[in-house]
Write a structure and sequence with these properties.
The protein is α/β, with parallel strands linked by helices and 252 residues long. The chain has two domains: 5-218, Rossmann fold, CATH 3.40.50.360; 221-252, no CATH class. It is 32% helix and 12% strand. It has helices at residues 18-32, 64-73, 79-90, 107-116, 164-177, 197-212, 225-228; strands at residues 5-10, 36-41, 93-99, 141-147, 182-183, 187-189. Strands 1, 2, 3, 4, 5 and 6 form a six-stranded parallel sheet that branches. Helix 1 (18-32) runs parallel beside helix 6.
Length: 252
Amino acid sequence: MVTMNIHIVYAHPDRNSLNASLRDEAVQTLEGLGHAVTVADLYAMNWKAVADYDDFGPGAEGPFMTAAREAFEQDAQSADINAEQERLLAADAVILQFPLWWFTVPAIMKGWMDRVFTNGFGYGDNRVWKRYGDGVLAGKRAMVIVTTGAGEPHLSDRGINGDINDLLFPIQHGVLFYTGMQVLSPVVVTGAAIIDDSGYADTVKHLRGRLETLAETEPIAYRRQTEDYDQAKRLLPGREAEGTTGFALHIA
C-alpha cells in the first residue's frame, strides 16, 4: 500500500462533538495504515478568519489582490498562512472536515480558504494562471467529510435542502478542484444530531473504509479547463449528454 502525507483541516468548536470523535477516528485509522497525518484544528488554533492587509506585513497597501501576490512572492505573509501553505505543499491528500452550517462551511474554515489560497498560491490574477484541474496543488487528492443535521432524504435530488452534491459543488469544484486537486466523493454523515450508538458504529465503519481506499478511489470526473472549455471559459458544444444542465455540465 502506498503511504501518504495527509493534512486534515478541521472546524468544529465543540471538543466533545461527533465531529471531534470522527476526526480522532480518522487520524487513528490513517496513522494505523502508515500515513503521516497533520491536523489544523482551526478553533483550537484560534485561526484568524478575516483576510485583510494585516496578512501581508507592515506597510502593505494598494489593490488587495496585488498586495496579496506581492506578500506571497516576497515571503511577507503571516506565519500562520505560510505554515498552512507548507503543509498543503507537503501533503499528498487534503481532507476538509466540518459541519454544514447554513449550507456551507463554518466561517472559520471559509477564512482559512480566503487566507491560505492567496494570490500566487491558490489563484492568479493573470490570464496564464492554470486552474480547474491545474495549479499549484495539481496531482494531490482531496476529500470532504461533512456532518449535517438534516436527514438523507432532505439532501437528495428532490429533497427540500437540495442535493448534497450541489451544495458541496462550490467547495469541491470551486475551491479544491480549482486549485488543481483531484476531488473524491465526500463522506456525508446525515442526521448528526440524533445519531445513536448503532448509527455511530456504521458511520465509523464507512469512514474507515473510505480512508483505507483514499489512494485508489476514482476522483469525481470534473472537466479540466484546458480540455473542455473555449476561450470564453464556456463548455465546448457536444461535451455533455442531452438534457444535462447546471453543475452536472461540469462533470464528464
